[in-house]
Amino acid sequence: MLPHRDRSALRKIEEELAASDPVFAATLSQGVLPAQSRRWQKILVLAEATVLLMLVFGLMAGDTGWFLWGLLAAPLLVWAHRAMLQRGRERAADDQP
């Protein structure tokens, strides 16, 4: 969370921007739309299912390539989820007065 001084400075900048270019300010204030966020969550869930299938198939079939690609993709998906959660928390904290 930002200190009071920084929040007030950002509020002033936002007001000046809204006065000079209201369309641009409105576009910035919308941020990521909930539909886009849900879409990314669905994509991540599908990617997780794919990685899980790659791991299982690689183990069951004895195919090292499938298993290793799944093993490499798993940390990337964890990172993507953590980044989305952190971004959501930061937005929620910024929206609070």
Automatic annotation (TrEMBL):
UniProt-listed InterPro entries: DUF3040
One Pfam family from the record: DUF3040
Keyword terms of this UniProt record: Membrane, Transmembrane, Transmembrane helix
Name of this protein: DUF3040 domain-containing protein
Transmembrane segments annotated in the record for this chain: 43-60, 66-85
Organism: Amycolatopsis halotolerans
